[in-house]
Specification:
Layout (H helix, E strand, L loop, with lengths): L1 H16 L2 H35 L8 H6 L4 H9 L30 H4 L13 H14 L3 H24 L6 H21 L5 H25 L5 H22 L2 H18 L6 H21 L3 H22 L5 H25 L10 H18 L4 H21 L7 H22 L2 H22 L2 H25 L11 H23 L4 H29 L5 H21 L4 H27 L8 H19 L4 H28 L6 H8 L1 H12 L12 H24 L16 H17 L6 H4 L2 H25 L6 H4 L1 H24 L3 H20 L8 H20 L9 H4 L5
Helix pairs in contact: 1-2, 8-9, 9-10, 9-11, 10-11, 11-13, 12-13, 12-14, 13-14, 13-15, 14-15, 15-16, 16-17, 18-19, 18-20, 19-20, 20-21, 21-23, 22-23, 22-24, 23-25, 25-26, 25-27, 25-28, 26-29, 27-28, 27-29, 28-29, 29-31, 31-33, 33-34, 33-35, 34-35
């Protein structure tokens, strides 16, 4: 029935809409209708049965009367719900019963099947997810305000069809002037209506006014740019009128939203109507008028958002014009507007504080106070082409202006915070005059040392201004050094270290470290001082790395770079450890403790990079650097003995350093022997790792100095890291071809398999360690079994490759010889595990053997059966059959009990 309704709906929908979309919609409606009809019928049936059941009386009259009465519909319904009762012999009902007598038993009650509670009818089938979805769709159409829902859907469909018809018939092709005029008239009508409702419905009225003026602005733009209905001058004038009108409306109605909208429209108007050929004087004059309007609004209203938006728009458009159009010949016509905008946003915060409420007068507009001089100074530098002397004069003039306004406002109590900010800016502008008049490297040195002195003064006098000024001066010093290097470049003829770039960077390093130490010692313990101490320590360390890196790359030839960087890392780690030995407290002490660890980690990476590029670390200057860093590293560890975890990690990296140096030295030395296969080079280079693990496993006391007291922390870390590296190398060796040149290939005695066996021994020793965690001890057996299976598979395939001449690539797995060999080896392993587990009562081993034999059987069916046309495939089946027969003879049944080792969780 549902399918019939879907077909009918699809046909009707396709006929009505003449398309597949109508057919799909009709099918969906038909399906919904069919489902609703089925649900209605089912519900009606359930209601009828329930009504019949409720109409049955609770008790039944005497049997004689019942036998004489015909069965009603209620009786039939009740009989339908109850199972058939067996006949019960008639009983004699007593005419009198004493009050003390107990109630009759169920056997003596007349018609017990009539008085028993009928069984609960079965629950109806729950609807599926698709049915529930259809029900929700149907409920949406049949519940709530149904006429509105259906009416809107039909209306939308009708309007869409009408618009499509009108567009196809060409009815909507009106002249552009008519369309623009109609839109403008509609916007003006909306504006007038919003003005009328400004008191009764304020929110609605303001929204309508803003939207109407926005539509008018867009209409003017469209009339000018898209349809050429207005000249540029008329469009510009209309936009000015609209912006002015929205400003007046905003002030009259105390509506910030309207003011913001007007400001956005005003600043966007020149961009929208620009043809690319206008005068920048006219543009900046218009923006000056807008900023004057903002200044006037600030005189009446304390609207910070409006001030900030005007500042951003003014300088953003000015910067964009300067990047795209500015030329040195336009300086005379551009500089006055920059100065004028600077003065505008110098006084607007003053008016903002004056008009603000009393409880808000101590809050200044930091974005305007500090953003205005910064942006103005950058734009001034661009206008002057970064002429140092001219820019120095500009900063001196700005300092004089800030001093003047601070002096003028000295008698206004509300201006105290603003006056102090102006004084700070005056000092900053005057300070900037120095670097603008002098070389940048000299300025950087002066600023760096001055910054450290100001930090000391601020801590001694508990003045935040001096503290933050010292930090800012160090930032300015860094910028000065970067600018000087960018402008003049690095001198290749300068002496190492004794050159202005290096000395300037070292001054920053000294200032950063000194400031960090001052904050750690003289700070009052507040979180801010502790954080600043760490930040300035990192700042000094950053400049130490940058300055040293530049100097090393400039002065050290390429063959000696490895030794130079290795020695530098050792010296830096030792210096940081000596500073940590002084035991600075708090976060700075933590940073000092872990700095040597970080540089030791970089040293390990550098040694691996050297090995990757075949650099021999045990020869020439490299050997001297290794010995020097070894001595400094020992001293570093002695300095870190008081730090628990930092010292333990440093000891772990110290041991890894020697392992990597030995491995890289052996690998690079053997790599130069062209007659020796790469497999031997790799295997012999891994000997230091294996030796380090076996020493850590059985003789850790030989590795303990000088951190013997922290052995319980660094020893597990060393063993686990060595095992991780050995495991990765073992995985790689599993897929190695095992070339043993100049020696012939011998199973188990070639370099790849020797390395795999040693790695397997290392893992076996670790897994059988009594100190192994219990969670790992539980999986000891499966892990060892997996290792044995992987080794056997790798050895078998490698033997097929070396002895059978099968290429070591994808063809190996297509070889019938390889498949037969795997079948035979896996079957032998399965036989051993099966028989041994059965004989020794070890169910885990027996289960492993059974699983292996099952895998081999599946392999025979899926893979080896394709090789039945050759001897190797036949041999696979025969070998497996024979081995299974042996298993059946030796261990026909699984073990009846588990071994004691398995039951206690210590199975191998």
């Amino acid at each position: 029935m549902a399918v019939l309704w879907m077909v009918i709906g699809a046909v009707l929908g396709g006929l009505l809409s003449s398309g597949w979309t109508g057919a799909v919609g009709g099918a969906v409606v038909g399906l919904i209708w069919a489902r609703q009809a089925a649900l209605s019928r089912e519900l009606a049936s359930l209601r009828t049965q329930l009504a019949a059941w409720k109409s049955v009386p609770a008790t039944r009259p005497a049997r004689a009367a019942t036998d004489e009465q015909p069965r009603t519909a209620a009786d039939e319904a009740r009989a339908a719900w109850q199972p058939a009762a067996e006949p019960v012999p008639p009983t004699v009902v007593a005419e009198f019963r004493a009050p003390e007598s107990p109630p009759p038993s169920p056997k003596s009650a007349p018609w017990p099947e009539e008085e028993s509670i009928p069984p609960v009818p079965p629950m109806p089938r729950q609807p599926s997810g698709f049915d529930r979805l259809l029900q929700r769709v149907w409920h949406w159409f049949t519940e709530g305000n149904v006429p509105v829902k259906i009416g809107m859907l039909v209306l939308f469909a009708g309007v869409a069809a009408l618009l499509k018809y009108a567009s196809d018939a060409g009815v909507l092709h009106a002249p552009p002037a008519v369309r623009v005029s109609l839109v403008a008239l509609a916007a003006m009508a909306g504006l007038a209506f919003g003005w009328r409702k400004r008191e009764s419905q304020r929110v609605f009225a303001l929204s309508l006014q803003g939207g109407a003026i926005g539509v008018l602005v867009i209409t003017v733009f469209a009339a000018f740019r898209l349809y050429n209905l207005l000249p540029a001058g008329a469009a510009f004038a209309l936009l000015v009128v609209l912006v002015a009108g929205i400003g007046v409306l905003a002030v009259m109605q105390d509506a910030l939203a309207l003011a913001v909208l007007g400001l956005l429209a005003g600043f966007a108007a020149p961009v929208l109507v620009s043809t690319g050929n206008g005068s920048h004087v006219a543009l900046f004059s218009y923006y000056a008028v807008l900023n004057l309007a903002i200044l006037g609004i600030a005189w009446k209203r304390s609207w910070r958002v409006l001030n900030l938006l005007g500042f951003i728009a003014t300088f953003a458009v000015g910067t964009a014009w300067g990047v795209l159009r500015y030329d040195s010949s336009l300086f005379a016509s551009t500089e006055p507007f920059l100065v004028l905008n600077f003065l505008f946003y110098l006084f607007i915060p003053w008016l903002h504080v004056t008009r603000a409420p009393v409880d808000r007068r101590l809050v200044i507009d930091g974005c305007l106070m500090f953003g205005n001089p910064l942006i103005s100074l950058l734009l001034q530098g661009a206008l002057l082409r970064w002429d140092g002397k001219a820019l120095g004069i500009s900063t001196l003039v700005a300092a004089a202006i800030y001093v003047t306004v601070a002096y003028v406002s000295r008698r206004q109590p509300a201006m105290r915070l603003l006056r102090e900010t102006w004084a700070i800016l005056a000092v900053a502008m005057a300070t900037l005059t120095v670097p603008l008049a002098l070389r940048a490297d000299v300025t950087g040195c002066i600023f760096a040392l001055e910054g450290a002195g100001l930090i000391w003064l601020g801590l001694r006098q508990q003045r935040r201004f001096a503290l933050w000024s010292g930090i800012a001066l160090q930032l300015f010093a860094a910028c000065a050094l970067l600018i000087d290097r960018d402008m003049h470049g690095a001198s290749s003829m300068a002496l190492p270290v004794l050159n202005r770039e290096c000395i300037g960077g070292l001054m920053l390093v000294v200032a950063g470290f000194a400031s960090s130490g001052l904050l750690a010692r003289l700070g009052d313990g507040r979180a801010l001082h502790r954080v600043l101490a760490v930040v300035l320590y990192g700042w000094g360390m950053l400049w130490w790395v940058v300055t040293s890196g530049v100097e090393i790359s400039r002065c050290i030839p390429d063959p000696y770079l490895f030794a130079a960087w290795l020695a530098w890392l050792g010296v830096t780690a030792w210096g940081a450890a000596e500073a940590a030995r002084l035991r600075a407290s708090g976060e700075l002490g933590f940073a000092l403790d872990w700095s040597p660890v970080a540089f030791n980690a970089v040293m390990l990476v550098w040694i691996m990079v050297g090995g990757f590029f075949h650099t021999q670390p045990l020869r020439g200057w490299n050997l001297l650097a290794v010995l020097a860093t070894g001595a400094l590293g020992w001293r570093t560890l002695l300095c870190l003995r008081e730090s628990v975890w930092a010292g333990a990690v440093a000891q772990w990296m110290w041991l890894w350093r020697w392992v990597l140096l030995a491995a890289c030295g052996i690998g690079v030395a053997l790599d130069r022997l062209r007659w020796l296969a790469d497999s031997w080079s790799v295997a012999l280079a891994m000997v230091p790792l294996l030796l380090a693990f076996f020493l850590a496993q059985w003789r850790p006391s030989l590795l303990a100095p000088p951190m013997a007291q922290h052995q319980s922390r660094w020893l597990p870390l060393l063993k686990y890291s060595l095992l991780a590296v050995l495991g990765v190398l073992g995985l790689a060796a599993l897929f190695a071809g095992g070339n043993a040149a100049p020696l012939p290939y011998v199973p188990l005695l070639n370099p790849a398999e020797l390395l795999l066996l040693l790695i397997a021994v290392a893992f076996g020793a670790w897994l059988n360690d009594p100190a192994l965690p219990s969670i790992l001890a539980r999986v000891r057996g499966p892990v060892l079994g997996g290792i044995v299976l992987a080794l056997a598979t790798s050895f078998t395939l490698r033997g097929v490759h070396q002895l059978g001449g099968v290429p070591w690539n994808g063809a190996l797995f297509d070889s019938s010889l390889a498949q037969m060999s795997l079948t035979l080896v896996w079957s032998i392993l399965g036989l051993f595990a099966w028989v041994w587990g059965s004989r020794h009562g070890h169910r885990l081993f027996w289960l492993a053997g059974a699983i292996i034999m099952g895998v081999v059987l599946a392999k025979l069916i899926l893979v080896d059966r394709r090789q039945l046309g050759n001897l190797f495939g036949i041999g696979s089946f025969i070998a497996f059959g024979l081995l299974c027969s042996v298993i059946g003879y030796l261990a026909p049944a699984p073990p009846r009990r588990s071994s004691s080792m398995e039951e206690t969780g210590h199975a191998p």
